[in-house]
Design goal:
Radius of gyration: 27 Å
Helix content: 25-40%
Structural class: alpha/beta
Number of domains: 3
Distance between the termini: 106 Å
Largest sheet: 7 strands, mixed
Shape: globular
Length: 307
């Protein structure tokens, strides 16, 4: 006798169900792969675009430049720096928020002539970007700083030149005399006082952030130390010193050429070349900065200009 109660499914139907399930699985899998590939490509294009968009911030002979970076969706911009090679490299990658999740980080896009200062990654749709030329003593490069517009910085007791610069450039930074005037959610930066998230000592020329101290020589590097993580700051500074070393060698050669045309100069950049080429960390920047000050004083009296 045949047992009842069991569902009998013809083999043809069973085979069709298995094949259909496999096709459905394959379609979903390929769709996900396609979406991920597309996201990776979009992130790569975005990172490249961010690098290109910062080109107009190169200041030439200006004291600074300001711009806004507005993106279509919530984005994380990853900032990486590598200091090996002749000039090292600036690396930018991005990740975007899609359907409540972050896409995989896109491929690295490298730039050899950019110096971006920020935290390891910054997040948002709108970013505040400004730049300053770094002269040491001649122009080395433009330093670019990027801050999410949602992140408010509040400077407490900034020196007059810093206060004037904030005002002249229209920087989105509060400048106050009393810490009680800083918004509670702001990142507070104290100049020669305590009680803030970040401490700047203008005599020592140091910036302490998250218990980590770095050193600077001028306002361009001071902003860099305030707005970036220590690892990025130290790496970018080493890249800048490598560039300083090479440029000082070039200007030394130029001095020889102009001397042959009856335009003698007493500027000797050998010491700067040696110090910059042996640079290890921001601990060395004070000694190099002192030498740069001496060169600037001497250069001011020179009739033959090299830069």
């Amino acid at each position: 006798m045949k047992k009842k109660g069991f569902l009998e499914i013809p083999f043809g139907w069973l085979f069709a169900l298995i094949v259909g399930a496999f096709i459905l699985f394959l379609a979903i899998y390929l769709s996900i792969k396609l979406i991920n590939t597309e996201n990776t490509a979009q992130n790569a294009e975005l990172a490249k675009g961010i690098g290109i968009l910062t080109d107009p911030l190169e200041t030439g002979f200006e004291e600074g430049s300001v711009s806004n970076l507005n993106l279509a969706t919530n984005t994380r911009i990853y900032n990486r720096c590598e200091d090996y090679g002749t000039f090292g490299r600036q690396i930018i990658s991005t990740s975007q928020q899609s359907l409540g999740k972050w896409t995989e980080i896109g491929v690295d896009i490298s730039f050899y002539n950019k110096y971006l200062f920020s935290e390891n990654y910054v997040e948002g749709k709108n970013f505040y970007v400004f730049s300053k030329p770094f002269e040491f003593p001649f122009k080395i490069a433009d330093l670019i700083y990027i801050i999410p517009s949602e992140k408010q910085y509040c400077f407490l007791g900034a020196p007059d030149d810093v206060s004037k610069e904030i005002s002249d450039l229209g920087l989105n930074i509060l400048n106050v005399k009393n810490i009680n005037n800083c918004p509670k959610t702001s990142v507070k930066v104290c100049f020669d006082s305590s009680g803030c998230d970040i401490l700047v000592k203008t005599i020592e020329k140091s910036v302490t952030k998250q218990s980590q101290k770095v050193f600077y020589t001028n306002n361009a590097l001071m902003y860099a130390a305030i707005f970036s993580d220590k690892g990025i700051y130290e790496c970018q500074l080493k890249r800048l010193m490598e560039r300083t070393s090479i440029l000082s060698s070039i200007y030394d050669q130029k001095a020889i050429l102009v001397s042959q045309k009856n335009c003698r100069t007493n500027i000797d950049l050998t010491g700067l070349n040696n110090l910059a080429s042996n640079f290890n960390s921001s601990l060395n920047i004070k000694a190099i900065g002192s030498l740069v000050e001496d060169i600037n004083k001497q250069y001011g009296a020179e009739e033959c200009k090299l830069w």
